[in-house]
Design a protein that fits this description.
Blueprint: E1 7-10, E2 13-16, E3 34-35, E4 38-45, E5 48-51, E6 57-67, E7 78-87, E8 92-96, E9 103-106, E10 111-120, E11 133-143, E12 158-162, E13 167-172, E14 174-176, E15 179-181, E16 190-201, E17 206-209, E18 214-221, E19 228-234, E20 240-246, E21 251-257, E22 266-267, E23 271-273
Parallel strand pairs: 3-12, 5-13
Antiparallel strand pairs: 1-2, 4-6, 6-10, 7-8, 7-11, 9-10, 11-12, 11-13, 14-16, 15-16, 16-17, 16-20, 18-19, 18-21, 21-22, 21-23
């Protein structure tokens, strides 16, 4: 079951899809939820979620749920989860949830540790390119208290949500290539290094060049483990990279991109050049 907070009034009757709602969004003819005695804290989630063009991406989260003695977190009709939103909490421009709710393990009579995942399906249109960047973490819990989820008396249903619990970056997955030529090359001669910086487009599900970005040309001498930056070049209008350098030692050449808030850092695989 995909857990989403969705409530709508359809022809004067309550339509419930999966879970419930921010109470402020509820519109029903059978009452509104009471505020559940629950709060959320100590949220952990990855600092960044890297999303490509088609593959599902799942990111784990955890939080502490503190609840009143009258809240039964073991009930079959009790649900809780964390989710991400962009924009204002009252009127978000986008939201991301998990395919399932969180699983909670009691740590005392009134606290529990809850864990779950945020599941992103880029091939299904979960994201637009403009959604890349910072997202805020929120959490929610609902107790149906024996009510039929398909047609509950909402006045007997408890609901609580809480925003501003943390943040994470949702980023457009990046790729970077490098090729140094000629191979081999004579010492002191010119090497030309080419490559391309590209990133996922969440709307057409292809990779396109990331333009106008600073990218470092780096070299690692054979027999060593550390790359040293030689110069910085910029990707062109198609994301392509091209620069020249002088061949002095056998070793590996690569491009390295530091990343932005919308696009993660990436380094190309080093291309080995034999210097004669």
């Amino acid at each position: 079951m995909r857990i989403r907070a969705t409530v709508a009034a359809v022809s004067g009757a309550l339509a419930l899809s999966a879970l419930v709602v921010p109470a402020a969004h509820a519109a029903t003819t059978s009452g509104t939820p009471y505020t559940l005695d629950a709060s959320f804290s100590s949220v952990t989630i990855a600092k960044a979620i890297k999303v490509g063009t088609t593959n599902e991406v799942s990111t784990k989260y955890s939080y502490t749920l503190t609840h009143g003695a009258d809240v039964d977190i073991t009930a079959q009709d009790f649900y809780t989860d964390a989710f991400l939103y962009r924009g204002s909490f009252a009127d978000p421009s986008a939201e991301l949830y998990g395919d399932d709710g969180a699983t909670c393990t009691a740590t005392s009579a009134t606290t529990a540790t809850c864990t779950g995942t945020i599941d992103v399906h880029p091939a299904d249109g979960d994201l637009a390119n403009a959604d890349a960047g910072s997202w805020t973490v929120a959490a929610e819990a609902i107790a149906f208290n024996g009510q039929n989820p398909d047609s509950p008396d909402m006045s007997k249903v408890g609901y609580k949500d809480q925003d501003g619990l943390g943040s994470t970056l949702v980023q457009r997955y990046s790729k970077l290539t490098a090729n140094a030529s000629p191979e081999p090359v004579y010492k002191g001669k010119t090497l030309t290094v080419t490559g391309k910086l590209s990133r996922a487009n969440w709307e057409d599900h292809q990779y396109h060049g990331y333009t106008g970005q600073p990218v470092k040309l780096q070299f690692r001498k054979a027999g060593t483990s550390t790359y040293t930056t030689v110069k910085t070049v910029y990707s062109d209008s198609s994301g392509n990279l091209k620069t020249t350098t002088t061949a002095s030692y056998d070793g590996y050449w690569r491009f390295s991109f530091a990343g932005t808030s919308t696009t993660p850092a990436v380094s190309a695989t080093g291309d080995y050049v034999d210097v004669k």
